[in-house]
Design brief:
The chain is globular and about 60 Å long. The protein starts with a helix and ends with a strand. It has a single domain (about 15-270), classed as Vaccinia Virus protein VP39 (Rossmann fold, 3-Layer(aba) Sandwich). With about 270 residues, it is of the alpha/beta class. A seven-stranded mixed β-sheet has the order 3-2-1-4-5-7-6, with helices on both faces. The protein has ten helices and seven strands.
């Protein structure tokens, strides 16, 4: 088999593994601070970040990629965007639809591969993603796809981070937290994933494109190569992290504050 054939087969298998992983995560996804919104101050902090980079909705069409249980879609709906959420994990979509129905929100959720959306050309005024880019198998193809579906002059907002490279300080804080939790000296934080899924998670992370970490400057450079212009890198997410920290133990809050997290906004030429 050719090298290309092997790569294609490998990527197909990895995509299916990622889909299965997030499907399994759906049941507990909203239990974790940093996923669902746990307070009104956090909601307000997210609104401020979105308004800073995208402006008010005013009925503009927004595409929420890897929408999960619809957390970001609801924030966008709050601000007056007409939102479509795409995800390829059916259990996530089931929760998102149920949540929208319970809250009386007119948000459309559809199953799709966010790297190959099948959406029409020049359709959306804005695209938003949260914690998606670091998991991409083929970001070059994904970014080109996102340029395609944006209207000329449309804007993208990516909220993400480097969740691979861990500083010495972060390693020390995590080790201290584990020790204090075992000793009963520190409350145990809500888990992002059941322990049995963490091995699968780590294996997947080792094989995605950004297996060495998604740094803001690298992501921005790749967006530029795909055709985006006017890049803004925003590393001031402190207001959001401060509101989330109230739901973690203090060591976890300290850890979050020193991680490389960012928001990048950019626009499609024209318009």
């Amino acid at each position: 088999m050719s090298e290309t054939g092997i790569a294609g087969r490998h990527n197909y298998g990895l995509r299916e593994e990622i889909k299965a992983y997030w499907s399994a995560r759906a049941a507990t996804f909203d239990l974790s601070p940093g996923h669902e919104i746990f307070s009104e101050p956090e909601r307000v902090a997210w609104h401020r970040l979105i308004l800073k980079h995208l402006g008010p909705g005013d009925g503009r069409l927004a595409l929420d990629l890897a929408s999960g249980t619809g957390v970001i879609s609801h924030l966008m709906d709050d601000l007056g965007f007409k939102v479509t959420g795409l995800d390829w994990a059916e259990p996530m979509l089931d929760q998102a639809r149920a949540k929208a129905k319970a809250r009386g929100r007119l948000i459309s959720f559809r199953m799709a591969d966010v790297e190959h959306t099948m959406e029409p050309d020049d359709t959306y005024d804005v695209i938003i993603t949260r914690h998606l880019v670091w998991t991409l198998v083929d970001p070059e193809a994904a970014f080109a796809e996102w340029v395609r579906v944006l209207k000329p002059g449309g804007t993208i907002l990516i909220v993400d981070g480097d969740f691979v490279n861990v500083s010495r300080t972060e390693r020390m804080l995590k080790a201290l937290a584990r020790g204090m939790e075992r000793a009963g000296l520190l409350k145990t934080d809500p888990k992002h994933a059941p322990p049995e899924l963490m091995k699968n998670h780590n294996d997947i992370v080792s094989r995605v494109h950004f297996s060495n970490g998604a740094r803001a400057e690298l992501v921005a450079s790749m967006l530029g190569d795909a055709g985006f212009q006017g890049m803004t890198i925003d590393t001031n997410l402190r207001e959001i992290h401060k509101t989330q920290a109230k739901h973690w133990n203090y060591l976890k809050a300290l850890t979050r504050g020193i991680q490389h997290r960012f928001a990048i906004s950019a626009r499609k030429p024209g318009g």
